[in-house]
Amino acid sequence: MIFSNLVVKKDEPIYLQIEKHIKQGIKNGELKKHSKLPSTREVSKFLNISRNSVISAYEELESMGIIITKRGIGTFVLIEGENENYEYNVDYIERINAYGDTLKKFDIVKSELPYKKGMISFKSISPESHLFNLDDFKRSFLDAWAYEGANLLNYGYAKGYKPLIDYFLEYMKEKQINTINKDILITNGFTEAFDIVISSLTNKGDTIICEEPTHNTALKIMKAYGLNIVQVKMDKEGLNIKSLEEALSNHNPKFGYLIPSYNNPTGIVTKTERRKEIYKLFRKFSVPIIEDGFNEELLYTSSPIDPIASLCGSGNGVIYIGSLSKILFPGLRIGWILADDKLVDILESVKRGKNIHSSFLDQSAFYYYLKSGAFNRYVKNVRKYYRDKYNLVVNLVEKYIPYEYITGEGGLHIFVKLKNNLDARKLLDLCYKDNVLFMPGDIFYENMQNTSKFITGNDTFRIGFGRVTDEDIEKGIKIIGKNIRLLTKA
Ligand SMILES: Cc1ncc(COP(=O)(O)O)c(C=O)c1O
By its UniProt entry, which PANTHER family does this protein fall under (predicted)? Predict the structure, then answer.
């Protein structure tokens, strides 16, 4: 009975107390819409009050459209109560841990100047999507569907889609990597692969040696896990050997993280001889290497160079991470880790713990795409496309941008060091007003910060050109050049 908890007070008209009690009952969900109220006679008897008070309350509520009396049937609630709702607020920002805080702090998608429609953007190094061969991919998708059917929509295996694993194992062999006692784990691109390796094999405070400058996402992940990052200077051939030896002997590092084939951001390609020297040094100091095979497939200014992983024969000192993201379908988020099979067995459990497995539908479609030979045709095609753009960019930069040096042997970007420590962020601010965007270089350095004082990399920037039309490349580089001259005069 709705009135069992109503204590009638003497200092307030009784009809009002009944009216409020019914309204409260509706509000808190005790009285649902369409539910029947006790008759006025029952209420007066139950509460030992005059029936007229109850009738007045019911009439008042009826006039407000809250209840309705149907002659000979009864009185019913006409309206819905509010959902039960007890406001409860928590300060989540206050509770964010160091991991979340670091990733937020260094989230350049949020902190850097945003792209606006109509701008010429050299910021991205993504591939040009109009080059994707959609018909080939559509066929591969239908093949996957025909061979695997609904299985692709059920749970799969953490390690990955077996035919794709076997494909990548063969692919690694073609790159002269010895795959005996090694295995592959399929991941969501390089980024997850790196996260899995780092989170499984390092502890807070461990030191990682990497190139200076290096991939911003890798820096961010290492920082989030509380690692100590030691960046080693590069020259035009790759890591400087003397500096590397010093770093290896002074810092007792846990790992090296290297991008030998198109370092991001410099675009420097480490040649075979230098790769050997680097590998031998890491081996001498018993420090394993995480090799990022980034953009290997796009090498077009030199003959193919085997990965560092190919140098360790049947040894397991190199963990190779592969991803075709910057060439083909980054949206599929497919990458892989090739490593010692006992390690992969553990990383497989880590992957399962993180997200069960990568999408089998995507892996299968990707596998049929690679198997069909479409990938080889596509790579040939895009190499030419990007090589032409690269040549255009280099010619224009040489003509319009006063630089100390530029690096980059192709791929999808080049890197510019400005003369006289000119601040690339000031340059970016000016260019942004002219609707031109690029990536400031400081984000690729351990001290990555947008600060006003000079820090390493402040006088550098990256020009990504994969998705910029030739016309805009010319327009944009001229604008950058004009603004450098403005800043230099100031
Ligand atoms: C150095 C480097 N490695 C790998 C990748 C690819 O990452 P993902 O496969 O997660 O897209 C990138 C993308 O920018 C990169 O710069």
Answer: HTH-TYPE TRANSCRIPTIONAL REGULATORY PROTEIN GABR (PTHR46577)
Is 225 a domain residue? Answer: yes
CA atoms within 13 A of residue 281's CA, in its CB half-sphere: 21
Cα distances (Å, whole numbers) of residue 35 to 32, 53, 57, 67, 69: 5, 21, 17, 10, 12
Residue 18 belongs to some domain of the structure: yes
Q: What is the span of the domain harbouring residue 37? A: 14-77
- Ligand 1 pocket: which of 294, 320, 333 to mutate (most atoms within 8 A of CB): 294
Q: What is the pTM of this model?
A: 0.84
Residue to mutate, 188, 192, 264, 362, ligand 1, most ligand atoms under 8 Å from C-beta: 264
Q: Is there a domain that residue 108 lies in?
A: no
pLDDT digits (tens, 9 = 90+) for 403-449: 999 999 888 999 999 999 999 999 999 999 999 999 999 999 987 65
Cβ of 287: how many Cβ atoms within 10 Å? 20
Distance CA 56, CA 79 (A): 19
Taking the centre of ligand 1 as the mean of its atom positions, its distance from the CA of residue 333, in whole angstroms, is 10
Using a 10 angstrom Cβ sphere, with 0-12 exposed, 13-18 middle and 19 or more buried, the burial of residue 107 is exposed
DSSP code of 88? -
The CA 45 to ligand 1 mean position distance, Å, reads 78
Report how far ligand 1's centroid is from the alpha carbon of 126 (Å). 9
Dist. CA 217 → ligand 1 center (Å): 8
- Does 285 share its domain with 315? yes
- Please report, for the domain that includes residue 169, its CATH number: 3.40.640.10
Peptide bond into 213 cis (omega under 30): yes
**Atom of ligand 1 minimally distant from the CA of 263:** 1
% of the chain with per-residue pLDDT over 90: 87
331-366 pLDDT per residue, tens: 999 999 999 999 999 999 999 999 999 999 999 999
Distance of CA 294 to the CA centre of its chain: 16
Ligand 1 atom nearest residue 125's Cα: 14
Cβ-contact 72, 36 below 8 angstroms: no
The verdict on residue 452 lying in a domain is yes
- Name the residue among 333, 449, 320, 467 with its Cα closest to residue 393: 467
Interval between CA 88 and ligand 1 midpoint (Å): 41
42 and 180 assigned to the same domain: no
